[in-house]
Amino acid sequence: MKRPLSLTGIPVSPGVAIGRAVLWVSREDSSPKRALEPEEIEPEIERFRKAAEAAVQETESTARHVKERLGPEYAGIFHAHALFLKDRTFLGPIERRIAHERVNAEWAVAATTADLMARFRSLPDEDFAHNAADIDDVGRVLKRHLGGEENSRLRMEDLAGEAIVLVADELTPSDAVRIPRDRVVAFVTERGGRTSHAAILARSFGLPAVVGVPQLLAEVGEGDRVVVDGRDGLVWREPSEDVVAFFRERRNQEARRERSLKERSLGGITRTRDGAEVAVRANIELLSEIGDVVEYGADGVGLFRSEFLYLSKEGVEFPSEEEQAAAYREILEGLAPRPVVIRTYDLGGKKGARHLVGSDESNPVLGLRGVRLCFARPEMFSTQLRALLAAAAGGNLRLLVPMVSGVEEIRRVRTLLKKAREDVLERGISVPDDIPLGAMIEVPSAAMTADLLAPEVDFLSLGTNDLIQYTLAVDRANETVSDLFRPTHPAVLRLVARVAEAARTAQKPLSVCGEMAADPALVILFLGLGIREFSMGPRTVPMMKEFLRGISTQDAERVARAALSLSTADEVSTFLAQELRDLAGDGAPRTAMRA
Ligand code: PEP
Ligand code: MG
After folding, report:
1. Is the CB of residue 182 less than 8 Å from the CB of residue 160?
2. Is 374 a residue of the active site?
3. What is the model's pTM?
């Protein structure tokens, strides 16, 4: 048995979980490396050959299909891929790598295709860059046929009855949304950051999670016993019985505390100590979370990330207009009369749907994402708008547009909405007249021009995850720069203050739906800037309501003024953490701010 070991990463979703490790191979790029025993080499090469044969068959059948539907010129690329997949000069090096380096086939495919792509890209002729893209595609097909997800599922079957901790290099949003939640009790990844979408989903699902754990895949193997402490970011491999007993007790304590907070969260308006009314809403991604909104006492939905209707689906087809309308109706009717903010598709960037973008972007987060991608795919967007309008009569709908960078985009959305409304009315479906339209403020240009945007919309919503990413030039999902992802950076605070001022002047409601809204130390600051609406993962709602009931707006205003006068993120974090302790006393909720 392996000796006990503890690893540290970034805590992203609280709670304690105890289970057996299952290595999860991401659907996208990641290929965890696994060392082979000598006797495993031959079977691994055999497994690789079978995968290559299956990949050839699939690619040839795609070529036939494409030829019939689109014509021979489009099928050529698939014929070329099939040739690659049969070519010994391509397959041979992969097999040799398996044998000589004693590594699993997925890894050998990834390493060999990466080498080849680098060689093609270093050649001066443009055509070779296309070859690199072909190799990339062929590598993906091969990895898919090697099993990826299926393998993980099979191994989960082997562990029948045991709680499972998923151990992965990285989880994409669509991986995270497909985690079989009946068996999986936590996940741990080598990459990722606090506001990566897998982390956000973990909090929504109440799954303890730790990301950005260095050496994770080298240290934790299939079937190892693992304890995950999502509050402090610890991962224990083969822990001693004492450690397990300690964490079992902590798990019980946390469950008791959550139950009592939940009871107090239900019913009635939430007011601060001095009587200011505040709304605490939920961010959700899936229809299955509608029950959580009610159960955790949220005042409606402050952000429904509608792109997950697509990301949680198998295949590349979009949900039809009818399917979408049914989904929107389910949320609206299920939660009426509570308000439900549905955000239009925020795809592209790192959220997946690369095929929609059309080309391989070298910088996707600055590329066709959110409303830009919607404009580039007008049929996709109009279908969504019609579905939303057709469902609107079922409840209290508010529409929110992601990745807005300036006023023109809002005007363009209004024009498209008008057309969608006419189309829906023409079919005899009634559409309420006054559906509020809001803009996400998550791009610095939108924050800087919030005074121009506010008069054009009915409400604003601060998406602080992206606002921090774009303001500080720090990838929100990259663990190597996670120390630089600082919500308390004075630049972020100034932008937030500016947006709050613009909303106040235009008398438009402003909410915060980024992860900053889930941190009580930062909520003091927002409250002090006059913000009264917050949205967060459903499970955080009870804690936040309890916290808000205990503080006053005067205290919060003093704190906000003082925080805005400080010079560094560290100074602001230390100050806010201290104020949190002073204002909330012994039972102060936890903050992620470093004091
Ligand atoms: C944000 O950017 O803060 C936000 C709420 O949107 P998402 O996390 O889905 O990008
Ligand atoms: Mg965002």
Report:
1. no
2. no
3. 0.77
**Which of the following is catalytic: 81, 145, 197, 489?**
197
Distance (Å, rounded) from C-alpha 423 to C-alpha 410?
Answer: 20
Known catalytic residue at 65? no
Identify the residue with better confidence: 422 or 33: 422
Strands 5-8 and 10-13, sheet pairing: unpaired
pLDDT-derived band at 196 (thresholds 50, 70, 90) equals confident
Contact present, 25 and 149 (Cβ < 8 Å):
yes
Residues 6+ apart with CB under 8 A from 261: 542, 543, 546
13-22, 72-81, 278-287, 331-340: least confidently modelled range: 72-81
Q: Is the pLDDT of residue 154 over 50?
A: no
Contacts of 241 (CB under 8 A, 6+ apart): none
316 DSSP β-pair partners: none
pLDDT surpasses 90 at 159: no
Domains (range + CATH), the chain: 5-26+153-256 (3.50.30.10), 38-145 (1.10.274.10), 266-584 (3.20.20.60)
Show contacts of 32-40: CB within 8 Å, 24+ apart.
Answer: 32/104, 32/106, 32/107, 32/168, 32/169, 32/217, 33/103, 33/104, 33/107, 33/217, 34/103, 34/104, 34/107, 35/102, 35/103, 36/98, 36/102, 36/103, 36/104, 37/102, 38/102
CA 546 to CA 164: how far, in whole Å?
33
Cβ proximity of 98 and 41 under 8 Å: yes
Ligand 1 neighbours, Cβ below 6 Å, are 303, 305, 346, 442, 463-466, 513-514
Average confidence (pLDDT) over 269-289? 96
Q: Which residues contact 83 (CB under 8 A, 6 or more apart)?
A: none
Residue 330: both structure tokens together: 């389910």
Exposed, middle or buried by CB within 10 Å (0-12, 13-18, 19+), for 512? buried
Strand partners, 143: none
Catalytic entry in 81, 374, 489, 513: 513
Cβ–Cβ < 8 Å for 509, 503: yes
Ligand 1 nearest-atom number relative to CA 465: 3
Nearest CA to ligand 1 atom 9: 305
Residue located nearest, by CA, to atom 1 of ligand 1: 463
H helix or E strand, kind and range, residue 454: none
In this predicted model, what pLDDT tens digit does every residue of 343-399 receive, in sequence order? 999 998 887 666 677 667 888 999 999 999 999 999 999 999 999 999 999 999 999
**Whether pLDDT at 150 is above 60:** no
Between 490-506 and 553-564, two packed helices, what is the crossing angle to 10 degrees?
130
Lowest mean pLDDT among 13-27, 152-166, 563-577: 152-166
Instruction: Write out pLDDT tens, residues 170-186.
Output: 887 777 877 888 889 99
> Going by C-beta distance under 8 Å and a sequence separation of 6 or more, which residues neighbour residue 315?
none
What is d(CA 25, CA 542) in angstroms, rounded to the nearest whole number? Answer: 35
